[in-house]
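Long-time lurker, first post. I've been practising inverse folding by hand and with some scripts of my own, and I keep getting stuck on stretches where the structure tokens seem ambiguous. Below is the full token string for one chain I'm working on. Before anyone asks, I'm not after the true native sequence, just a reasonable design that respects the backbone. If someone could post their per-position residues I'd love to compare against what I wrote down in my notebook.
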């Protein structure tokens, strides 16, 4: 249905023949106040581009939505994929890439800064907050 270029690691920790990914690890540049070069937009990815909105027509009737019947979430859990090594001349970023989202009027502009929380200490790095 589509094509995604992304990082891949092989593991014996999942069922054979299964591809595992975090849900929504990728974000479009500018979305959620992300910088246009944020890792989430350049190295993260979504499987949405591989998911058909409807299941193929079958003998029992018309097309059926390719979604969970309770939640309506896209049925990413049964997407079939083919994995292969990217060519050496391909860019070192995920694909597809989209235009950077414009700032949404009425929302605060994000000031990029690092923030770290140390569990158990109740403190943020750089001082008490």
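-- Answer (accepted) --
I ran through it position by position. Result:
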């Amino acid at each position: 249905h589509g094509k995604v270029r992304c990082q891949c690691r092989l593991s014996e920790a999942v069922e054979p023949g299964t591809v595992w990914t975090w849900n929504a690890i990728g974000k479009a540049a500018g979305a959620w106040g992300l910088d246009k070069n944020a890792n989430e937009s350049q190295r993260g990815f979504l499987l949405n581009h591989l998911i058909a909105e409807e299941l193929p027509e079958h003998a029992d009737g018309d097309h059926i939505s390719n979604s969970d019947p309770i939640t309506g979430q896209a049925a990413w859990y049964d997407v079939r994929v083919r994995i292969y090594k990217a060519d050496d001349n391909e860019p070192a970023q995920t694909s597809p890439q989209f235009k950077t989202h414009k700032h949404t009027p009425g929302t605060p502009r994000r000031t990029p800064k690092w923030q770290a929380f140390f569990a158990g200490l109740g403190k943020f790095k750089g001082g008490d907050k």
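A couple of notes from the structure itself: The chain has a mean pLDDT of 79. The CA atoms of residues 21 and 47 lie 9 Å apart. Happy to go over any region you disagree with.
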